[in-house]
Write a structure and sequence with these properties.
Strand content: 25-35%
Shape: elongated
Structural class: alpha+beta
Number of helices: 14
Largest sheet: 10 strands, antiparallel
Strand order of the largest sheet: 1-2-3-4-5-6-7-8-9-10
């Protein structure tokens, strides 16, 4: 290689008067994947929003990015000269078929030379010349890292000083990183197109499946329970990271108070305790699989689609016939295993398995009988709290189901004798107090669904009204679709988002409680018991639920975005039948 000739050529081309640029045939938002600079040199390209212009051959000819500007001159020999004006001054880059030479053109001169063979970079040398206290120094910014057997593993940044020219510094760089360096920090990947990338998905999923199963078999973890495969956004996604947890880890999680309840944190702590194994996958893949991993880890927009498809195929393969639950997840941070991601549709099953999945028969019995409810809570890993929660905390609710009772949702509309229709309101429901154990008479519910806010008070002119009367009379006004109802008893438990903390549960117990409560939360209209809205907010303390309405298209109750409405009353006001103190809670998604 001839550094001097390279530098002279770049400087000569930069100094030459540029040809008249072709007229832009197309303009679009900036996209680094469309630049002529190979991905091996993408640490030099702009990253901020801007615009790109293309000639009539579809080649990029200019771009703006923040305060920087770039132009590209396409030469007859197939090379491209990039002229850039950056925050540090002008820069020239000559892009050839297998070489990139980049030079900063001010007194602070730096040179970087990249070469590659096929699709793997084999050289990266950089020199920087700058004034330091009157003398000229050369900073060599790349150094080879050698494995114990002498092979070069990668090239890292380093610093050295040498008197003389930039060429001398580049010569020093070649000594630090001799030939055949495979520079893994930046790999040149020539994008083959979406169809070719999709063709890699199935064979790569097969290779990763085999590699992960082999790593599981060699892990020493007894009774494998969870295989967490991570394809991170913040680093090369492939080969993936992976953790394997056994049944012993599951029991440890159930009995340990862990801050924030973050499942990924539990996994990482489990490695130190010998309960979890971190699996090495890359060493089990052949060259073709590693090459496919590199391709699908690029930032090309079409690579994301192929990566998503790979995540889904890998999750399906890993769960097929396995004793463990596998989740393929792009996060290993505190939000890992807490949401369902692409390729991780079994995450909810994982969370449920940290407690116990209730059988339909056990759940149906627990909704009716406190003894059965206590047994269900015990099975969820909350033995020390089960009796209190089932017998002192659980409240009975009455679910409004279609039936032949006197109470009804929607019309026919009723009002107390002599009462005017509340302006803008819709008639929601009429509850026969005798059917819900509140004495005699009727409770009539109204709301202006267009004016509701989070909390309203029952008063003339308010968006909500509740009337109590002994003998209602027919009225004429807008009403929900008529639905006669009967009341079906069932037990309810606190279901708002902070309920575990309110009940004195540890973080791990709160996680189990959250999964247990998921079996109880249904979209129902009900009277009494516990209820929370779409946002999982805690209801006003010391109040009793009079009516909870859920989003119901057939009924015609459509508030906000899948919203709910609760009518509540303080306990002492209910005892005194002071209906003026009724309040509502309304929320939506």
């Amino acid at each position: 290689m001839n550094w001097k000739a390279d530098l002279e050529e770049v400087e000569r081309q930069y100094a030459a008067e540029p040809a008249e640029p072709p007229l832009a045939a197309r303009v679009q938002p900036f996209d680094p994947a469309l630049l002529p600079v190979p991905l091996v040199a993408h640490d030099q390209v702009p990253e901020h929003p801007g615009e790109m212009c293309f000639d009539d051959a579809g080649r990029p000819i200019s771009a703006t990015s923040g305060i920087a500007s770039y132009t590209w001159e396409w030469r007859e020999d197939g090379s491209v000269l990039e002229r850039a004006m950056t925050a540090l001054g002008p820069r020239a880059t000559l892009i050839r078929r297998d070489t990139v030479v980049s030079i900063d053109m001010l007194s602070r001169v730096s040179v970087q030379r990249l070469t590659w063979d096929g699709d793997v970079a084999v050289r990266s040398d950089e020199a920087l010349r700058f004034a330091t206290g009157g003398r000229v120094g050369v900073d060599i910014a790349r150094e080879a890292d050698h494995a114990p057997d002498g092979a070069v593993r990668h090239v890292r940044r380093a610093q050295a000083e040498a008197d003389g020219s930039v060429e001398a510094g580049l010569q020093r760089a070649t000594q630090l990183a001799p030939t055949e360096v495979h520079w893994t920090a930046k790999e040149l990947v020539v994008w083959p197109g979406a169809e070719a990338a999709r063709a890699l998905v199935e064979p790569l999923a097969q290779a990763l499946d085999a590699a992960l199963r082999g790593a599981v078999a060699d892990s020493g973890i007894a009774d494998p329970f969870l295989l967490h495969v991570v394809t991170p956004h913040s680093a090369p996604a492939l080969p993936p990271k992976a953790w394997l947890a056994g049944a012993a880890w599951r029991e440890h999680v159930r009995s340990t108070d862990l801050t924030d309840g973050a499942a990924a944190t539990w996994l990482h702590r489990g490695v130190d305790r010998g309960l979890v194994a971190q699996l090495e996958v890359g060493d089990r893949l052949d060259a073709d699989a590693l090459r496919a991993c590199a391709l699908l880890s690029t930032t090309h927009p079409e690579a994301w689609d192929a990566l998503h498809a790979l995540q889904e195929r890998l999750a399906t393969r890993l769960n097929a016939g396995a004793a463990w639950l596998a989740a393929v997840d792009p996060s290993d941070g505190t939000d890992a295993l807490r949401n369902t991601y692409t390729g991780g549709a079994d995450v909810e099953a994982f969370r449920a398995s940290l407690s116990s999945t209730a059988s339909p028969d056990a759940l149906a019995a627990a909704l009716r009988d406190r003894g059965a409810l206590e047994a269900l809570i015990c099975a969820a890993g909350l033995e020390s709290h089960a009796h209190r929660l089932a017998h002192a905390v659980a409240l009975e609710s009455l679910v409004l189901v279609p039936g032949d009772g006197r109470s009804h949702l929607g019309g026919p509309a009723l009002l107390p004798p002599g009462e005017a229709w509340p302006e803008g309101h819709t008639f929601l429901a009429a509850i026969d107090r005798a059917e819900v154990g509140l004495g005699t008479g009727w409770l009539l519910f109204f709301a202006d669904l267009d004016e509701l806010t989070w909390e309203e008070v029952n008063a003339p002119g308010s968006p909500i009204r509740l009337f109590a009367t002994d003998a209602p009379v027919p009225a004429d006004g807008p009403a929900l679709t008529p639905r006669p109802v009967r009341f079906q008893p069932r037990l309810t438990l606190p279901e708002w988002s902070d309920a575990g903390e309110d009940l004195g549960l540890s973080a791990a117990e709160s996680e189990a409680w959250s999964e247990l409560i998921g079996n109880f939360v249904e979209e129902q209209h009900r009277f009494g018991g516990y209820a929370s809205g779409v946002q999982g907010e805690r209801p006003e303390p010391g109040t009793v639920l009079l009516l909870h309405l859920d989003w119901d298209e057939e009924l015609g109750f459509e508030y906000g975005d899948g919203g709910t409405l609760q009518f509540r009353i303080p306990e002492d006001a209910l005892a005194a039948e002071d209906w003026s103190r009724v309040i509502t809670m309304a929320d939506s998604g």
